[in-house]
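Working notes for the structural subgroup meeting. M.R. asked for a predicted model of this chain before we commit to crystallization trials. I am recording the input and output together here so anyone reviewing the notebook later can reproduce the run.

Input as submitted:
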Amino acid sequence: DCSIQRRFQKLIEEAPCDILPSHLRIRMAAAALAIAVSTHYVNALTVEFFYLPKTQEFYFNEVNTRLQVEHCVTEMITGVDIVEEQIRIAAGERLRHTQEDIHFRGSVLECRITAEDAAHSFIPNPGTITNLRLPHGLGIRIDEGIYEGYTIPFYYDSLLLKLITWGETRNQAILRMRRALDELRIEGLKTTIPFHRIALKDDVFTAGHHTTEFIKEQSIVKKVREQESVSL
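Returned structure, recorded in C-alpha cell form:
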C-alpha cells in the first residue's frame, strides 16, 4: 500500500494492504504474473494497481521494470533478498525460490525520510547534517548513505534514508515505527521526520482507512506547522 504521497511521490509504504481482501490480493498477483509471463520478462519488476475500497475494484496503473525504492518492504515481509536475486539473474543463475515458496510473514512499514520542509508544502531543504542519531532495536531496518558532515545537494533527490519496521501485526509495526521515529535525529536541515511522527499517530492511518488524499484530508501539513510553532 503506497497511498500516502505528496506530488505523486510516495512517503509511506506498507505490506500487506490492511483493507485489501485476500481474494483480491490473489487476483492482483495473478494479473501481475500474467504481465511478466506474457512479455517474457526476466528480472525484477513491479506492477502497480489502483484499488477502490468502496466498490472493491482494482485497475492497472503501470509497470516499473526496475528495483523499486520500497523493495525493502517486500524483502522484510517475504525474507527474499531481491538485490541478491537480481545479481544471480545477471550472472545467468537460476532463482533460488519458486512462487510457491513466497509467503507473507507479519506486517511491514516504511517511512521515506527526505530533506524537505513538510510545514511548507514539502519544499526541498538541502544543507549539511550536523548531528545524526539512528534508531536501533528488534524489527528495525535502515537503508541510508548519510553521515554527520554530509551535505545534501540541491540538484538531486531529497531522500536521506528509508526507515523500515517489521511486526507480527500491523499495530506492532506501527508502534515500533513510532518509537524509531522518536529516536531518529537528523539536525542541520529540515526533514520529514515531524510529518511521519504525526501521520503515524493519525486515527485514520492507524485504522487503515487512508487514501491518496490522506495528507490533504487530515490536514497533516497544517498540523506539522502548528507543532513547529509550539516548539518555537
